[in-house]
Amino acid sequence: MSNNTIKELEALKAIEMDAGEVFSGKESGRKIIGYEKRGSFTPEEDRNYIFHDSSRDVVVWFINPSDPLYLFGPTGCGKTSLIRQLASKLNYPVFEITGHSRLEFPDMIGHFSVENGNMTFQYGPLALAMKFGGLFLLNEIDLLDPATAAGLNTVLDGAPLCVPENNGELINPHPNFRFAATANTNGASDETGLYQGTLRQNIAFLDRFWLCEVMYPEAKAENQLLERAHPDLPVSIREKMVAFAGEVRKLFMGGENASANLSDRIEVTFSTRTLLRWADLTLRFQPLMSQGIKPINYALDRALGYRATRESRTVLHELVQRIFTE
Ligand SMILES: Nc1ncnc2c1ncn2[C@@H]1O[C@H](COP(=O)(O)OP(=O)(O)OP(=O)(O)O)[C@@H](O)[C@H]1O
Ligand SMILES: [Mg+2]
C-alpha cells in the first residue's frame, strides 16, 4: 500500500448528511454519517441501480449501526451491490474481501511484504476499515471455516483489533467503522444443497449480527432495471422476461407456488444477474434471426439453460414458449 493511499485515508473527512436527502432527495431531518469527498475506496456509482425494499433496513442500519449486519439471500439478488451502492451515495470507503474455506485472519488484517527492498506491513481490509473509518464488506461469509469466522467475535463486539504480525499493534475501532457481511444462507447451513461449500456457522458468532433478508426485486423494479439497462429491447419483451424470471423462481422454490401445469421443482434459479445477462445476449444475438434462430431462446440457453439438467431445460423452454406466445 503506497504512502499516498495511507495519506488519502488519513485525510478522510466524515460529515453529517441528511438521510432523506441522500437516499430519496427529500429532506428528512434524520442525520447520517457520510464522507465529504469520494476517494479510491468509494464504490463507483451505478446509475441504473434500483434500490429494493430491503434497502430500508440497510439505511436504518447505516443511520445507527449498533451491530454488524448480515445480509442473506439467493445468488444474484443484489446483496453486495446494495451495500456498495448505498455506501457510494454516502461517499463511504468500502474495504472488501470474499470468504472461502481457506481464508485466514492475516488475509483480513494484513501481512508483511517487500516494498522497494524494505519489509513493510500491508494492512488488510479489516484493519484499514477499523483504523481509518470505513465499511468492511465480507462477502460469502458462510464459506468461511466456522473457527476462523468465530475468531472475529471480539471485533464484532466492538473490541480493538490486535495485529501481532505488526509488533502487536492495537487498532481501536474508528467510530465510523462498519462491518457488513453477505451470504447465500443465513449461516445455519444450506437447505437446498445448491450452495456448495457453505458451512454451518458457530451460533455465538451468528448471534452477534443484525440480520437482513434480501429477496429478488419486485417485478416493477426489475422492469425498471431492464428499461434502464436495455432501453432498446421492446417493452413487451422486457415484461415477459421479468414474468418468466418470476415463474422460474417459483419453480426453484418449490411446487406449491408454481403454476398449475408446471409443478416440477427445478434446480436452477433466475437471478437478477441472469436476467440482465439474458436481456443483453438477446440483443446481441438479434442478427441470428436471419438464420432462423430465435434470439430469446438462444440467449436463454447461454444465460442459464446450459446450467440446468436436460429435464429442467425442457421445462424452461416450455415456459418460455408459453409466456412469449401469450
Ligand atoms: N436492484 C438492482 N439494480 C441494478 N442492478 C442490480 C440490482 N440487483 C442486482 N443487480 C445486478 O445484478 C448483479 C448481481 O448483483 P450482486 O452481485 O449484488 O448479487 P449478490 O446478491 O451479491 O449475489 P451473490 O450471492 O452471487 O454474491 C450485479 O451485476 C448487479 O449490478
Ligand atoms: Mg455477492
Spatial arrangement of strands, main beta sheet? 4-7-10-3-11
Beta fraction of the residues?
15-25%
Q: Structural class from helices and strands?
A: alpha/beta
| Residue-averaged pLDDT | 91
Biggest β-sheet, characterized?
A: 5 strands, parallel
Rg, Cα atoms, Å: 22 Å
> How many individual β-strands?
11
- The top level CATH class name of the largest domain: Alpha Beta
Q: Could you say how many structural domains there are in total?
A: 2
CATH topology of the largest domain: Rossmann fold
The ordered H/E elements are HEHEHEHEHEEHEHHEEEHEHHHHH
Question: Could you name the ranges where pLDDT drops below 50 across 5 or more consecutive residues?
Answer: 255-262
Ligands (ions, cofactors included): adenosine-5'-triphosphate, magnesium ion
Number of helices: 14
Could you tell me how far the N terminus lies from the C terminus, measured between alpha carbons in angstroms? 57 Å
